[in-house]
Amino acid sequence: MKTRGFTLIESLVAVAIVALAVGGPLYAANRALVAAEISRDRLTAIYLAQEAIEQARHVRDTAYLNDYKNNGQDTSGSWQKFRDLILTGPVNCRTPSICTVEPTSHQFAAYTPPAVPPPLYNDSAGTRQYTQNKPGATSKPTIFTRTIQVVSESTTDPVGMELAATTSWTFHGTSYSVTITDHLTAWQ
């Protein structure tokens, strides 16, 4: 007696082939989405780290411009004022200490490890500006933390310092970070 139809084994093999045919592209699409999200976050982190370097540069430039305006073009003490601001006193950004910088007020705040700086906030009220302090009710904490520190200081001519800005974040339980370094020197 010969029967027609599929056996149980043939049916299982067919289901397995269909599952692989559908599952493979879905897995690839999932990995592509995760990679795109990581790339988006990495790009944001690069911009945030660069912004921290630019904030330090802005503070240095402001010291020079204020001295130029107020002291009749004598800017000889400007570099020392900048150094004193981020290396001594209540704010010490020299390694191993780390600092945060508030982009709206250009203020530095110091943290000594293991203290962890607060996350950056995103003002969703329209400015979309990342800020160190929670400015209002519409602000939401982000996944990013940003620090800046003086890695090394040159005492030779020209006087300068190496700054390192690091933006860190966690995505799906994995920690990521981006570090940008730059050298600031005296204007003179």
UniProtKB/TrEMBL annotation:
A Pfam family it matches: N_methyl
Protein name according to UniProt: Type II secretion system protein GspI C-terminal domain-containing protein
Domain of life: Bacteria
NCBIfam families associated with the record: IV_pilin_GFxxxE
